[in-house]
Amino acid sequence: MQHGAHGASGRCVLLMVVGLATCNAYAVVTAIPEDDPSTGTTQEVSGVAHLPLTISNATVPYDQATLPTFLKKEDAMGFKRADQKIQMGSHNRLREAMIDIRNDIPTEGPHGASCEEAAEEPREPTTELTQNVTVMISGGFKAALKKLLSQYEAKSGYEVILVPGPSMGQSPQAIPNRLARGEKADVVIMVGDALTSLEKGNWTQPGSRTELADSSIGMVVKKGDPWPDIKTVTAFRNTLLEAKSIAYSDSASGTYISSQLFKKLGIEDRVKDKAHMIECIPVASEVAKGNYALGFQQVSELLPVHGVDLVGEVPDEVQLITRYAGAVIAEAVNQKEGEALLSFLSSPEAQDIIHAAGLRSVRAENGGSSCRSSHTANAVFILLALITILF
């Protein structure tokens, strides 16, 4: 956004709002520094930081992981970093910098969903509490669920409130950590192994677990670039060796790539200098900018990004499949509606959309075991009847 010349020296205005309903404190810092004399224009941006907030010579402490990428770079767009602070002085080339601060959403950890997901604000409820279904959700399934929200809300009359966070890890946003500190939810949708741990800890309603989808790792290139061959393990290995640069996520898929995949292919030492973990932003967005030749992440997280082509999935022999499942929380306010949501997500109509979002359907597994048991029992009964008749 461009503005006319301002001419005034840098100023800083602090506005704090306390959300009584949610007991969350918010603060907005607006800094109005001098215009950039070299261009005669200024720019307007926004970012996220955390309480406690202190103002001293227009300096705002922040958590780096929650800020947009351009705020993390040294001197980027006029912001200067010093001891993890944003200094909004008179030399700042930004005319208006607004920082929305929420004290109960800290920075993202190294495992699980990426930082930009964890910093995302949940959808705020617009109806009474009992008419909302709160879902704590891991990043790999979020895009699929968002495609289904309007359909489900119109059908059920309930609004779905999404609270994003990784399935595990030390991050305060991690779903188990949110629950442990008393945050409320009706449903969790997360990596299956992590959900199993919650079940063992009696955090979920017995028998409410619903298998939802499998997620695989895919590879993208910048849109218009030639597609490398990754159809076989040998071809895939050669593609990695020939690539100028490789990017992978800071989530579970990236951890697998850096700690296991390269070792399995015997190329760990040969790619270590050109393979980089991308923190806090989608891997595909960096590939789209031309910063990296190849990008790896969950297919469901690659598809929504423009400017890239999905070449395909990692070969099956070296693939990592991540299972996503959901369950109703033991102390859910809307237990029945939580069950209804999971039932909807496992229905054929929803599974088709989930598959289109880059996930693998597991519809046959939901209720499938009882169905198979029934067929087996019928077969045994018929066999016994035939034996009785014949003998």
UniProtKB/TrEMBL annotation:
Keywords: Signal. Residues 107-127 are annotated as: Disordered. InterPro entries: ModA/WtpA. One of its GO terms (biological process) is molybdate ion transport. Residues 1-31 form the signal peptide. It comes from the Eukaryota. Pfam families: SBP_bac_11. The keyword Signal applies. GO terms for molecular function: molybdate ion binding. This is Aconitate isomerase-like isoform X2. It comes from Thrips palmi. The gene is LOC117649138.
